[in-house]
Amino acid sequence: MRRAAIMLPLLLLGACKDEPDFDTRYDKAAAEIEARAKAMDADVAEADKAAKDDDGTGAAPQTR
Fold first, then answer.
1. Where does the pLDDT of residue 9 fall: very low under 50, low under 70, confident under 90, or very high at 90 and above?
2. Buried b (16+ CB within 10 A) or exposed e, 27-45
3. How far from chain centre, in Å, is Cα 2?
4. Is residue 58 within 8 Å of residue 52, measured between CB atoms?
5. What is the pLDDT of residue 22?
6. How many C-beta atoms surround the C-beta of residue 51 within 10 A?
7. CA dihedral over 45, 51, 54, 56, signed as positive or negative
8. What is the pLDDT of residues 10-60, one digit of tens each?
9. Cα dist. 42→13, 49, 55, 57, 60 in Å?
10. Is residue 2 scored above 70 in pLDDT?
């Protein structure tokens, strides 16, 4: 029982060290956001290109 009382706090301390620090989490989140932004920019550029290819003017179609 005494061993368990000594080992439990040591195990808990060891488990806490595996958590990444703030800077690591921030860098990871920033990289993910940048990747998403680049993907969105590529989608918008592709949609603009497709719109320009439809009639050559790049204007939205007129319906009357």
1. confident
2. eeeeeeeeeeeeeeeeeee
3. 46
4. yes
5. 95
6. 14
7. negative
8. 777 666 667 889 999 999 999 999 999 999 999 999 999 988 887 666 566
9. 45, 10, 21, 20, 20
10. yes
